[in-house]
Amino acid sequence: MARKFFVGGNFKSNGTVASIKSIIEHLNNAKLNPNVEVAIAPPAIYLLLANEITRKDIAIAAQNIFDKGNGAYTGEISAEQLKDAGIHWVLIGHSERRALLGESDKFIASKTKAALAQGLSVILCIGESLEQREAGVTIDVVTSQLAAVAEEVSDWSKIVVAYEPVWAIGTGKVATTAQAQEVHAAIRAWLKENVSEKAAEETRILYGGSVTDKNSKELAQQPDVDGFLVGGASLKPAFVDIINSAA
Ligand code: PEP
């Protein structure tokens, strides 16, 4: 089965009402390859606005959820609330949250389970630090991040995996096509061995980390690169070129 190319835009904690409207207006007027699935993840406070004004062939994603339902969890947003608000996608496990907020593999797995239980689709972010890459443990790190999720979740049909080497995020230092392809192939092999052949064949594996319109075409040609998760460049007009760089 051919995997539909997927491009996500992670706005991180950037934007104002005015700038989010302007980014979305640009996307609304752009000619986008219909064979590419697109999702944008604005900050939580702009999710409803984005959902209202964005063209319907672009999905809106939250950047995070909590792993509990509604209740006494001040400041958190539940999967139920996202669903109620018509937001069908959520980013889970972004390395900035893992590093800055101490989110563990176990917590990320628990959030993934909570999201799937409400029928949400998940962009599950994994990736190694520079020290881990230099120590030669990249594959061990990403597969143990996946294994934590596999302990909680058996159906991977609503999960898109985003491989994002931490050293490449927001640094301008993109992984080489060979580095990306090697890890993506290892992730697919892990899915085959530990989840199912179907999950290995059908799960989209995105690359993230300093993707721009200058490097996206070459990365997109790799057989196991099924799309991108884009941070900084998703705030710029050239995001459209990244979306349209599908091989
Ligand atoms: C990200 O935030 O997921 C990301 C990949 O950021 P950037 O594209 O800016 O490196």
Write the layout of secondary structure elements.
Elements: E1 5-10, H1 17-28, E2 36-41, H2 47-53, E3 58-62, H3 79-84, E4 89-92, H4 95-100, H5 105-117, E5 121-126, H6 130-134, H7 138-152, E6 159-163, H8 177-194, H9 197-202, E7 205-208, H10 216-220, E8 227-230, H11 239-243
Parallel strand pairs: 1-2, 1-8, 2-3, 3-4, 4-5, 5-6, 6-7, 7-8
Helix pairs in contact: 5-7, 7-8
Could you give a quick summary of the protein structure above?
With 247 residues, the chain is α/β, with parallel strands linked by helices. Helix content is 40%, strand content 16%.
Distance between the termini: 16 Å
Strand order of the largest sheet: 1-2-3-4-5-6-7-8
Elements, N to C (H/E): EHEHEHEHHEHHEHHEHEH
Please mark out the parts with pLDDT under 50 across 5 or more consecutive residues, or reply none: none
Q: Residue share in helices?
A: 25-40%
What is the total number of structural domains?
1
Helix count, DSSP H or I runs of 4 or more residues = 11
Average pLDDT over all residues: 97
The CATH superfamily turns out to be Aldolase class I
- Number of extended strands: 8
Label the overall shape. globular
CATH first level: which class? Alpha Beta
